[in-house]
Amino acid sequence: MKTLGIVRETKNRWEARVPLNPKAAKKLIQKGFEVIVQPATIRIYREEEYKKVGAVISDDLSNCDLILGVKEIHIPDLIPGIPHLFFAHVIKGQDYNMPMLQYMLDNKITLFDYEKIVDKKSRRLVFFGKFAGNAGMIDTLWGLGHRLKLQHGIDTPFFKVKRAYEYETVHDAIEHLKIIGKEIEENGLPEEITPLNIFILGYGHVAYGCREILNALPIIEIDPENLAEHQKNYQNNKVYLSNFKEKHLVERKDGNEFELEHFFDNCAEYYSRFYQYLPYCSVYMNAIFWNTDCPVYLKKTDLEKIQGEKQKLVIIGDISCDINGSVQATVKANYPDNPIFIYNAKTGEASDGLVGEGFADMTVDNLPCEFSKEASDYFSKILEPFIEKLLVCDCSKSIEGTDLPDEIKGACITHQGKLQPEYEYLEEFLKI
């Protein structure tokens, strides 16, 4: 009998999500698999709910054939020789997770990463992205209202927005924002902040989650190329949304025309042209894929140029939360109850809270945990079809020699003490 283990989440006190809910666990048990769940005090589903469907509650996962988690697993909790599946956050060479990756190599732990379970067009198949967009957008609107009030003394309906975790469900948040949207439409926004322009970078699941929240407001879309003209003709009772794609953000260094596929394959050959739009931006939502070869879209030097008494940019919502990544203001991650810090581009310093010179920055690196139950149920449903195949897989063979689906084979980062060929580039990060 094959055995699945579900670890307790230890990322932080907010991480209540599960990779498989009791309903999915029950289906596996009915098929003859065993499911062992580590006890946890903050998990959104209680131990009793797993026991009720036949799961075993135990700290000991040493005899499991596959171990599932959501976020990174602390090194002492990794079990040598057993395949693990979780969001590893190593594929960009993230320095804070290189010791974990090295440990997995040293102890011949097969690592599968949700982030790399993709289809033939590189579209992710197992994700929390929509909920990251939902929570990130809500937390950013909360930050917008509080920053305007506490730093600038400007009252807006956005001050009534709650933090994402303070809403019971995404639906509840949207219904509340509809009330706020009606107030904006009826009374308008203060002249000092109009037109209120929200920029979303990206067009995937995360951006969709942002839009799902913004649709509760009186939104009018403005093409990025029309922003300058838009400044001369706008309504103060509307919120304006501009969606930025790669073609708006970069230009080729060799002067040739932008080609999306060329950019994906050769992003180091491009430079950012985003600064031309920055003076029009009130809220910057970072929801676009980025790696270390890509240009930095929101640079410290650009923020320094616009920082001052008349700056339009109030808040950055960095949902991607790559530390020192495409948003150079993102120098650290915060938590759901304290999602904002102030970044002073002139000094490079960051301070928690909503008051101070500079730009507010929303940086929570596990945003979907703010809607833990909804996010877990959604994730469980899309992960479920892959679990049985992983459980019955003979991981003593080479991954290519197994009958795993291609989507799972491509998500294998390490196997039998070695990086898989697609991920051998990580050797350079391990040496640092």
Which key features would you list for this structure?
8-stranded mixed β-sheet; alpha/beta; 432 residues; Rossmann fold; single chain; 18 strands
Write a structural description.
There is one protein chain. The protein folds into two domains: 3-127 and 372-430, Rossmann fold (3-Layer(aba) Sandwich), CATH 3.40.50.720; 129-370, 3-Layer(aba) Sandwich (Rossmann fold). The chain is 29% helix and 16% strand. It has 13 helices and 18 strands. Strands 3-2-1-4-5-6-17-18 form an eight-stranded mixed beta sheet, with helices on both faces. The longest helix is centred in the first third of the chain and has 24 residues, at 129-152. The mean pLDDT is 96.
Write the layout of secondary structure elements.
Blueprint: E1 3-6, H1 22-30, E2 34-37, H2 47-52, E3 56-57, E4 66-68, E5 84-86, H3 98-106, E6 111-113, H4 129-152, H5 170-187, E7 196-201, H6 205-214, E8 219-221, H7 227-230, E9 239-244, H8 246-249, E10 250-252, H9 260-265, E11 270-272, E12 283-286, H10 300-306, E13 315-318, E14 340-344, E15 349-352, E16 359-362, H11 372-392, H12 406-409, E17 412-415, E18 418-419, H13 427-430
Parallel strand pairs: 1-2, 1-4, 2-3, 4-5, 5-6, 7-9, 7-12, 8-9, 12-13, 13-16
Antiparallel strand pairs: 6-17, 10-11, 14-15, 14-16, 17-18
Helix pairs in contact: 4-6
